Amino acid sequence: MNDTPVIGVLALQGDVREHLIALASADALARPVRRPEELAEVDGLVLPGGESTTMSKLAALFGMLEPLRERIAAGMPVYGTCAGMILLADKILDPRSGQETLGGIDMIVRRNAFGRQNESFEAAVEVAGIDGGPVEGVFIRAPWVESVGAGAKVIAEHGGHIVAVRQQNALATSFHPELTGDHRLHAYFTEMVRAAG
Question: Residues with catalytic annotation?
């Protein structure tokens, strides 16, 4: 891999375009990923916000579930925001029927923990490893992490709840950094991809 990593955004549903823009501003070559052959060509992957149940069903429909699980298990750097965080959880506290996860982070996640769409909010969040002060977190029907296992490291909390976790090459946030002009988390993830390459 050269100095510019190729980072995909899972483009089945959700705020794909905003992540592509944020990654490009963080000096990554960003591209949408919908099929296994596109997944094979990226150095890292972002799982965007959206609707986690719909995303897992579409991933199954597009033949992406197993390829995604295999790449994540093999150590491909991956970053999940909001619904993407739910997909990366080893366990969901209150899954919908037929909802599957990809796994990758030893954590238990509660869906829609911060409330419904109309209870969305923004908050300044201190994230360990991110310099320059707190990041602006946009919480939209956001999950929170109930608990983490030994392998996972809590890197941010808000209101007494875990909202960002890292485990080796996997990163997850409850909130949407791609909806702000602040691309430091995308830059942090791009560095994770570089380090893994």
Answer: 82, 176, 178
Predicted local confidence at residue 114, as pLDDT: 86
Residue 47 is encoded by which pair of tokens? Answer: 């799982």
Cα distances (angstroms) measured from residue 196 to each of 78, 89, 119, 157, 175: 11, 21, 37, 26, 24
Contacts (Cβ under 8 Å, ≥6 apart) of 45 = 7, 8, 9, 10, 33, 39, 68, 71, 76, 77, 78, 79
Write down the pTM of the prediction. 0.96
Residue type, 5: P
Lowest mean pLDDT among 11-20, 79-88, 111-120: 111-120
Q: State residue 2's pLDDT score.
A: 60
Bridge partners for 123 per DSSP: 137
Q: What pLDDT was estimated at residue 74?
A: 97
Q: How far is CA 61 from CA 10, 42, 148, in A?
A: 14, 21, 30
